[in-house]
């Protein structure tokens, strides 16, 4: 019995639904091989002629496509040449494990390849410690690659000018989903950028630890404490080149700089599920901005309230903390653990 043909949207007879097409290219199957595989799964007793017709492939190409599937462990071939499917729960799982092993070996080889690259750079007189990244596209690609390659931590210093938040957001989400720690310190001016501020809130909800300082001295990305990226030139309001720093004493120093600033910075938002003494989330946000030196006007815009309301809330916080001024209020709240991120 053959496989029923279905009418596609163009009115042309198709051997299989559109939802079946090109779903397995990520495991090494061509479009034709995938169609043959699905045809075999749907009708294990189909003859070669029926399979070729159902999969819309040339009958002469069928043996080669079946050999590809057999080599991947997705089908077996009987003595008479008839193809029989392996249960996908077994065949596909084994294939994916082999591919994962290959990926892990390739990742392990990156260190050796990097050593070869640095040796080559030394031979041509280039610095083995740094690499110049030119152009916005190359820079964004490098940032995404660094973040997605992180094994333990991504650390970021961010200060104006700000680029579009969504350009590297998928890479950040990938690293967080992979269990990588993400810490970021933002300049207080981030409050002037509603889009970026909302993005920070979103990433914090996803697991990023975000803190703020009145001023952040430079833009910086450090991955796993061993590689760093420092933007060096600007085109309009966006960085268009940077220095990529390879493992060295310089990356160690940049990591130490980040840690020193992190110790001084205060959290922007509550971590998920956190409780901090008598402060509610809005009070914590307000106090965090105060301690970071944010002006009343910016706080009012950020919270959507008037300057007078900001002043009233600040005075209430000072009374509750027994603080003489805003900076002292921030210190006392931090000492009591109300602002820990």
From TrEMBL:
Top-level taxon of the source organism: Bacteria
Occurrences of domain HTH luxR-type (ranges): 272-337
Single GO MF annotation: DNA binding
Q: What's one Pfam family the UniProt record gives for this protein?
A: GerE
Q: Which SUPFAM superfamilies match?
A: C-terminal effector domain of the bipartite response regulators (SSF46894), Winged helix' DNA-binding domain (SSF46785)
Recorded hits in InterPro entries, A to Z, give: Sig_transdc_resp-reg_C-effctor, TrmB-like, Tscrpt_reg_LuxR_C, WH-like_DNA-bd_sf, WH_DNA-bd_sf
Cited PROSITE patterns: HTH_LUXR_2
Instruction: Give the GO biological process terms.
Output: regulation of DNA-templated transcription
Q: What is this protein called?
A: Transcriptional regulator, LuxR family
Instruction: Look up and give the organism this protein is from.
Output: Stackebrandtia nassauensis (strain DSM 44728 / CIP 108903 / NRRL B-16338 / NBRC 102104 / LLR-40K-21)
């Amino acid at each position: 019995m053959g496989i029923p043909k279905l009418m596609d949207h163009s009115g042309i007879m198709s051997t299989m639904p559109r939802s079946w097409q090109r779903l397995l290219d990520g495991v090494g199957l061509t479009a034709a091989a995938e169609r043959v595989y699905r045809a075999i799964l749907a009708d294990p007793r189909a003859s070669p002629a029926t399979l070729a017709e159902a999969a819309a492939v040339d009958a002469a190409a069928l043996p080669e496509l079946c050999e590809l599937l057999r080599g991947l462990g997705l089908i077996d071939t009987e003595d008479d040449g008839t193809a029989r499917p392996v249960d996908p729960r077994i065949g596909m799982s084994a294939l994916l494990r082999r591919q994962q092993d290959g990926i892990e070996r390739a990742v392990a080889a990156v260190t050796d390849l990097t050593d070869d690259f640095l040796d080559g750079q030394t031979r041509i007189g280039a610095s083995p410690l740094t690499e110049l990244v030119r152009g916005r596209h190359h820079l964004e690609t490098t940032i995404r690659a660094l973040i997605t390659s992180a094994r333990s931590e991504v650390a970021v210093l961010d200060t104006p000018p700000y680029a579009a938040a969504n350009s590297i957001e998928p890479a950040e989400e990938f690293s967080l989903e992979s269990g990588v720690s993400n810490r970021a310190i933002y300049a207080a001016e981030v409050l002037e950028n509603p889009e970026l501020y909302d993005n920070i809130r979103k990433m914090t909800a996803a697991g990023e630890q975000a803190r703020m300082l009145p001023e952040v001295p430079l833009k910086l990305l450090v991955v796993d404490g061993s590689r760093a990226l420092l933007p060096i030139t600007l085109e309009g309001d966006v960085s268009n080149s940077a220095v990529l720093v390879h493992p060295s004493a310089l990356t160690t120093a940049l990591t130490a700089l980040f840690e020193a600033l992190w110790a001084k910075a205060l959290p922007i938002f509550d971590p998920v599920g956190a409780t901090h003494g008598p402060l509610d989330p809005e009070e914590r946000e307000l106090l965090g901005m105060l301690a970071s030196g944010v002006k009343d006007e910016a706080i009012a815009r950020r919270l959507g309230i008037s300057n007078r309301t900001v002043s009233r809330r600040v005075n209430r916080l000072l009374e509750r903390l027994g603080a003489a001024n805003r900076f002292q209020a921030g210190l006392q709240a931090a000492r009591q653990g109300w602002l820990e991120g």
